[in-house]
From TrEMBL:
Localization of this protein: Golgi apparatus membrane
Organism this protein belongs to: Drosophila kikkawai
Domain of life where this protein originates: Eukaryota
Recorded GO CC terms: Golgi membrane
Protein name as catalogued: Galactosylgalactosylxylosylprotein 3-beta-glucuronosyltransferase
Glycosylation sites: N352
Membrane-topology descriptor: Single-pass type II membrane protein
EC assignment: 2.4.1.135
Catalytic activity entry: 3-O-(beta-D-galactosyl-(1->3)-beta-D-galactosyl-(1->4)-beta-D-xylosyl)-L-seryl-[protein] + UDP-alpha-D-glucuronate = 3-O-(beta-D-GlcA-(1->3)-beta-D-Gal-(1->3)-beta-D-Gal-(1->4)-beta-D-Xyl)-L-seryl-[protein] + UDP + H(+)
Gene symbol of the encoding locus: GlcAT-S
Cofactor or coenzyme needed: Mn(2+)
Amino acid sequence: MSSAHYQALEPQTSDEDNEDIEQRRPKQQQHHHYHLRNHSGSTTTACSLATPVMARKGRRRCLLPLVGGVLFFIAFCYLTLSVDTRLALGLGGGSDDSDDEGSHNDLDRNNFRPLNETVHICSESYEDRRQFMQDKPNSEYGQLPVIYFVTPTYPRREQIPELTRLAHTLLHVPRLHWLVADDQQKCNDFIDTLLNRFGIPFTHMVSPMPAKFRFADPAPRGVANRRAALRWLRQHNLTNGVLYFGDDDNTYDLRLFSEIRKTQRVSMFPVGLIADYAISGPVVRKGKVVAFLDSWVAGRRWPVDMAGFAVSLEYMAQYPNVNMPYKPGYEEDLFLRSINVRMDEIEPRGNNCTEVLVWHTQTKSKKLGVVRLESKYLDDRSNLGALLRNLELMGVATITESESRTAQISKNGKAKPHSVILS
Ligand code: UGA
Ligand code: MN
């Protein structure tokens, strides 16, 4: 480059070489090429030549030493890179472990193309502006009404991950009591340990779905356990605070909690990702709820999702007949009818129901994992005994000695007999 002073980057029309590149590039990237211009205004290339033809030929000649230089540079880098670096880059070499042979050799060079993707930063911040509720003493929140967050849950392999994710949302919410109501007979000690570790005030209860509904299709999901939580609230004569039904698999925006805490009687707000419209929620005119948008009406006076409302306990206490029937699809409607909700009393939340503060996300459900391994290897010679026993306690996977195919344990890309690794 002849000059050290360059003007701003400017777009330049394609020449032959660029056209070649143009054809290979995806459409959306075909904008402009930028060439450095020197201050006299002429385009700067490695070898400047007078006519376009000369320039093309000359450029090819100039390319030869350039290509040679690049090859020399690559060879130099390869020889000087440490063995560890080469291994980390997947370039092989440097290992005397015979197991390693062939494992990387099959890999095509294309698997290791250089990292040359365009990095387009949209925005970033290096300032940590997070506000953890622990920054303030509990007393700062003492005056806030308590949110009773009722979570029906049930044993399946996603249960512990779901509760863990939800807990990490609730960890940010002051003055909250988490009612975790498990749809099963026995108390799961693992859930107790988990809940204790989070430090969120909680009540862990069990209340299984009555057997007669278990195989119904559709089944009244999460009803027995929500009913148990309603009983708990009544037994404790709670007339202060806010009730919210928060399923274990939804996604909650932290602003939801400040919104529902204001509830005087009944708050309502949109829930994202519900059914065909991907939304369900109130229609608001002049600050008042006048109707509902939901793709499944089915005669429901309150066609809302369980996550789309909150109720003040003071208000609910006036209705001793509060109930949630075992009627799939109608739980919300009949619950809201049992507390005599009136349309003109509903408090629209989330900026007059224009914002989505809760999402009806659903987790893909799968069967229990099955790991077949001889029990004699589940001792403390390796981590596997403790790890797999934990997974059993969490209801994620079962360990077996007979079912299914023997678990694969591999090293350097090759399956090994258990005895080789675990004895
Ligand atoms: C939708 C609504 O969002 C739920 O509030 C409603 O209870 C449910 O439909 C229904 O009426 O069936 P959806 O995502 O379809 O929710 O249902 P799930 O998330 O599978 O279940 C809702 C809640 O009940 C969850 O917290 C889940 O853990 C719990 N549940 C589910 C049980 O306690 N037992 C079960 O057998 C199934
Ligand atoms: Mn759900």
